[in-house]
Specification:
The protein is an alpha/beta fold and 241 residues long. The protein has one domain: Glycoside hydrolase/deacetylase (TIM Barrel, Alpha-Beta Barrel), CATH 3.20.20.370. It contains nine helices and ten strands. Strands 1, 4, 5, 6, 7 and 10 form a six-stranded parallel beta sheet that branches. Strand 5, helix 3 and strand 6 form a beta-alpha-beta unit. Helix 6 packs parallel to helix 7. It is globular. The protein starts with 7 loop residues before the first strand and ends with a helix. Bound molecules: zinc ion. The site of zinc ion has 5 residues, from loops.
Length: 241
């Protein structure tokens, strides 16, 4: 549906100047690169949104959703204070099996270990009405490699756990590695979600939303391109799923 082509969703993971985050590039950006992104959004009058807004309000082509996957504790040192200072919204996707733990799947690949949010930190973040806490599964496995029952367990248990911690309804999900199961829509609906993000999505619907990565190699010109309708059309042609 053309309706969803208006939704511009940015996928971020880590924001840090610390040396250990270097190995996580392109999924880690510097503090100044993050500021550049927020400056661009402000200067060009885009509006940051979360999925509670998208559920309740009419959307506009100026809407931008900033999403963070995995959520290292380091976000508390720069990215989150910067969002608060600028009164901007964001969505944080948390794999519940790794609360107060670390990025096991990156470490297996030889990348550096970084610490994730604790339960108390998730509670603090969820108190800001601009911020949404979403699920990123329990075990951070590729859901397209699991059977339907195991996928449902991942979807249901992570949602329940985050709702217990935040006392708020969890309405959106981000697929680990952007890999979506074939029965995506039915499973997400069954588990009670209203929205879900992937990465490379050919035909979008509210359970298969396309995202674009913003990395250290991006600049004002590439960002302008990635936020354009032409880029959405390009991605609809080129994306894999
Ligand atoms: Zn992830």
């Amino acid at each position: 549906m053309i309706y969803w082509n208006n939704t511009k969703i940015i996928m971020l993971h880590h924001v840090s100047d610390l040396v250990e985050f270097k190995s996580l590039e392109p999924y880690s950006i510097s503090n100044s690169k993050f500021s550049e992104l927020l400056d661009y959004i402000e200067k060009n009058h885009f509006r940051t949104r979360n999925f509670y807004d998208i559920k309740n309000q009419k959307r506009s082509h100026k809407d931008v959703v900033i999403t963070f996957d995995d959520c290292s504790r380091e976000l508390l040192n720069f990215a989150i204070p910067e969002l608060i200072k600028r009164n901007m919204k964001a969505v944080f996707y948390i794999p519940t099996g790794f609360i107060n733990s670390f990025n096991e799947w990156d470490v297996i690949e030889g990348k550096d270990q970084v610490d994730f949010f604790s339960e108390q930190e998730i509670i603090e973040i969820s108190k800001y009405s601009n911020f949404e806490i979403g699920s990123h599964s329990v075990t951070h496995r590729k859901l397209n490699q699991l059977n339907d029952n195991d996928i449902l367990q991942e979807l249901i248990h992570s949602k329940k756990e985050l709702e217990r911690i935040t006392k708020k309804e969890v309405i959106s999900f981000a697929h680990p590695f952007g890999e979506m199961p074939s029965d995506n829509k039915n499973l997400l609906e069954k588990a009670g979600y209203l929205f879900a993000c992937g990465i490379y999505v050919k035909r979008q619907n509210k359970f298969a939303l396309r995202r674009f990565i913003f990395h250290n190699g991006d600049n004002t010109a590439s960002l302008k391109k990635k936020l354009s309708i032409n880029y959405q059309i390009y991605r609809a042609i080129r994306d894999r799923f």
